[in-house]
Amino acid sequence: MRVDFNVPIKDGKVEDDFRIQKALPTIKFLQKKGAKIVLITHLGKGGQTLRPVAKVLNKYIKAKFVPATIGYTVSLAIWKMKNGDVILLENLRNEKWEQEGYMGYAKTFKEWGDIYVNEAFSVSHRKDTSIVLIPKVLPHYAGLQFESEVRNLSHAFKKPKHPFLFILGGAKFSTKMPLIKKYLKLADYVFIGGALANDFLKAEGFNVDKSLVDNVNYGITKILKNKKLILPTDFIIKNKVILDIGKESTKNLARLIKKAKLILWNGPLGKYEDGGAKATKSILKSVAASKAESIIGGGDTVALISKMKMEKKFSFVSTGGGAALDFLANGTLPGIKALE
Description:
By secondary structure, the chain is an alpha/beta fold. It folds into 2 domains: about 1-140, 3-Layer(aba) Sandwich (Rossmann fold); about 150-330, Rossmann fold, CATH 3.40.50. About 40% of the residues lie in helices and about 15% in strands. It is built from 15 helices and 16 strands. The protein has helices spanning about 20-30, 50-55, 70-80, 95-100, 105-110, 130-135, 145-155, 175-185, 195-205, 220-225, 245-260, 280-290, 300-305, 320-330, 335, and strands spanning about 1-5, 10, 15, 35-40, 65, 85-90, 115-120, 140, 165-170, 190, 230, 235-240, 240-245, 260-265, 295, 315. The strands form 5 sheets. It has a 6-stranded parallel beta sheet, with helices on both faces. It has a 3-stranded parallel beta sheet with strand order 1-7-8, sandwiched between helices. A 3-stranded parallel beta sheet has the order 4-6-5, sandwiched between helices. Helix 5 crosses helix 6 (about 130-135) and helix 8 packs across helix 14. It is elongated and about 65 Å long.
């Protein structure tokens, strides 16, 4: 079972176990059916161990950690398994073949299992061996959370409710430009915050000083004419850097939230890691209090939701960052296609 336990770790301790928790229903479902479950995941860019992750996982279910991804150690651990047992293999990215798309590596997993389950929606925008090649050698299924991701995120582009408000924050303009263009057609309002807003402000002729900008011409000037586009009107600035959107912008956005029947939100509205989280926290509370269907994604936004213990206040909270963005833009992912 491919999971995404690529969780933030600091000083050897897991800081947020949201993604671990979201995989548990599928694991427990398979346990009840008597399956022997071999969990595989990556962590970081490779070179890290999953021991801290295994420790957290064992708070919820009993799982043995196997410090290898191939070879005799893995074969022996699987051979010793009883029905309902769970083992977690070491970091897949410690093997170069994981990201190289090597079929020989995929066939190794065929020797150890009868079926493949993808419960890693949040990494299914990648063409890694464990995402797109293992399904070619084993009967394959989507996990419960994976199915929930596809079903709920699809609400944003398959007959969405109106008024429809799309809130987009964070950085990485290049990955979010297709979304802006698509949802200016689908949504009634598109509010741009975070570092993304800096590029629009610069295009309008404002001095953004030391604030993060992309400095690539994405045809922003044309988009600025779209009446559905809503930009912040005031900001909190620190050391010549835009830190967060201001009080007036927060109030304007809160008014739109009250009108909306569907709210799609991805990415924080400020540099929350540097203390610019005030507006994001305020708007999260506004969305939680609204009657609209609310779909929220993006690693930083979800991390904040976890810290505020607000997961159950929204209609759906996605585990996907880049995967959610790609799915919202394209309607599919390599990991979805591999299961078809």
